[in-house]
Design goal:
single chain, 82 residues, 6 helices, 68% helix, rod-shaped
Length: 82
């Protein structure tokens, strides 16, 4: 797949940048998850909702109204009403 987006001369650079941006994204998501779990009471949500947001990425789909994901996690769990 990488050969479809770059030349042989730039293969290492493009691969390294992709790896680095993926790592940065993972760290950012981890920090956001920690904020939700550690400061759930200051944010105004329940611990269950904080865990759902931190550990189940499909929760954002529930909040947006995606029908496929909404059957898995009740929307009330995200709002702190569970």
């Amino acid at each position: 797949m990488l050969v479809d987006v770059t030349t042989d001369a730039r293969m290492d650079v493009v691969s390294s940048h992709g790896y680095a941006w993926g790592y940065i994204e993972a760290v950012c998501l981890f920090v956001i998850s920690l904020v939700f779990v550690l400061f759930y009471d200051k944010i105004g949500i329940t611990m269950g909702a904080a865990m759902a947001v931190a550990f189940f990425p499909q929760c954002s789909l529930v909040a947006s109204g995606d029908a496929a994901a909404s059957s898995e996690i009740p929307a009330d769990a995200l709002c702190g009403n569970a």
